[in-house]
């Protein structure tokens, strides 16, 4: 597959190899004119998966190597870029069997009421 390198001066710390990179046009009128591209969502184009991330080159920026889904679709330098985690690997919620939680009312001058508590927990193994 074809690859391309994207260079950024700053990088979100949670970006990792395997994440999906998207680009979005930043036209002034907000319109999208994407024709014949099968990998777009609401005008946003899925470029592909992050293959590698190189630390700052001479302290000027980061280089992200992206494995392109469609070699005919290349981003512009004016595009807005963002990434999405692979939901098969990066699931949200807590992992494990045991959790201990302590709720404390630090304002002792007023009566407080706790309406609800909820969480999303994923068992790590059985």
In short:
With 126 residues, this protein is mainly β. It has no helices and eight strands.
Structure notes:
The chain has about 130 residues and is mainly β. About 0% of the residues lie in helices and about 30% in strands. The protein contains no helices and 8 strands. It has strands at about 5-10, 20-25, 40, 45-55, 60-70, 80-85, 95, 120. Strands 1, 2, 3, 4, 5 and 6 form a 6-stranded antiparallel beta sheet that branches. A two-stranded parallel ribbon has the order 7-8. The model is unreliable at about 30-40 (pLDDT under 50).
Biggest pleated-sheet summary: 6 strands, antiparallel
Q: What share of residues is helical?
A: under 10%
Mean pLDDT: 76
Alpha-beta classification: mainly beta
Instruction: Enumerate how many helices there are, as a single number.
Output: 0
SSE blueprint:
Blueprint: E1 3-8, E2 20-24, E3 40-41, E4 44-54, E5 62-68, E6 80-84, E7 94-95, E8 121-122
Parallel strand pairs: 7-8
Antiparallel strand pairs: 1-5, 2-4, 2-6, 3-4, 4-5
Brief descriptors of the model:
elongated, mainly beta, two-stranded parallel sheet, 126 residues, 6-stranded antiparallel sheet
